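Protocol step 4 of 6: structure prediction from sequence.
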Amino acid sequence: MPLYRISRLLAEAGSLVVRVCEGRFGITRREWRLMSYLALSGGVPPSELARCAGLDKARTSRVIASLLEKRLIVRTPKPSDRRQAIVQLTEEGRRIHDEVLPLTRRINQELLAVLSDDEVDWLDGVLDRLQARAETVVATFDAELPRARRHVGGARRPV
């Protein structure tokens, strides 16, 4: 059950990233994810940010709102179409990103320290292939499976 094992790995090692982000810098892991993409891109429309981060548009919108409130990003309307905008890190957002990045890199390097360089390369390639396959599997099963109905409450199940 690879999904279970990957989930356990993320829960264990990812908890350190959460502690860095939330405990030291007051940002969530999702906020950190968006900030990382913005640091690489310099600025993108929210829809592209959602796609790159692998989040739905509604969740991305909530994270953007939170980052705006914390003054870690700015949202600038495009001059050609004021309905569209570009999201960018502020100086404070960049400063936090630049402090968090080496800490998260160190956690990842410590995790990979049990592997040789060849094994790290192999793992990277395997993860790329698994990601591509996951997208295919999701597309295949998407129409067959019911959507989660989280808005009706946690314990309720369709009868």
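Step 5 (inspection) to follow. The chain has two domains: 2-113, 116-144.
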